[in-house]
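Tokenised fold entry reproduced for everyone:
>
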Amino acid sequence: MKIRQSASERAADVLVYAVMLFIICITLYPFLYVLSMSISKPIHVVEQSVWLFPKGLSFSAYDRIFDSPEVWTSYSNTFFYTVAGMMLNVIMTSLAAYPLSRKGFFLRKYMMMFIVVTMFFGGGIIPMFILMQDLGIYNTRWAILLPTAASAFLIIIARTFFQTIPESLHESAKLDGANDITILTTIVLPLSKPILAVLTLFYAVNHWNSFFPALMYLPNPSLQPLSLYLMKILVQGQEVMVEGMIDSYDRTLHSIQIKYAMIIVTVLPIVSVYPFLQKYFVQGVMIGSLKE
């Protein structure tokens, strides 16, 4: 049955929809603007005459990007750091959160206190740099993967979610002779798809967008991720893909548009993943952060 609304309720709904539409517009506009700038004709990009939709059509910037071997190397490095790092992060976070969620673990309170302290205090950049060198992982892929193997914040979120799983399931499994590893892999994790999706999304986005650890610990260009390559183009102004052009005007045309195209190339893959994990993301965050 259709519920009749009063005039004030209808006005409130219209106001909510209007505010949400405004937020959607101001959120999507930067993406649409960057996309339009990346596929417009270079002359319109230089003139800054593109405001919303592309003027003309040119994919020369993308051609130059994908013709660059450095881009493909950076892309492969980013995929490796994202996939390998995310798998390592989810495993380490689950292994840390599960025992902390068990009331019978006698070190539970002390370990939680230790983990929370790490969220407020850190050694700093210089001690971390010295540590990477002493461990022998400086200028290796392990310098990206190991220091961020687990997040204290996400361990707390996962621990809270694991606590929502009924205790009767643990007791029944133990009566059947299952140990903690078996309970974790066959009972807890299959029931924890929402929080696993949250962990996957958080860690994947963090690895995909991260450039500062690579800037600190990876001087070798063949190991650097795509985000660091993008930073070199946008911040440092390196025109690495237009160096073969003799005409300075032609260099300016393409170098400006390449920056916009690089943003699209860098952001599009990780943005495309979010719609498939959205329902788990909302459910996992709500349960993992509010229930005790």
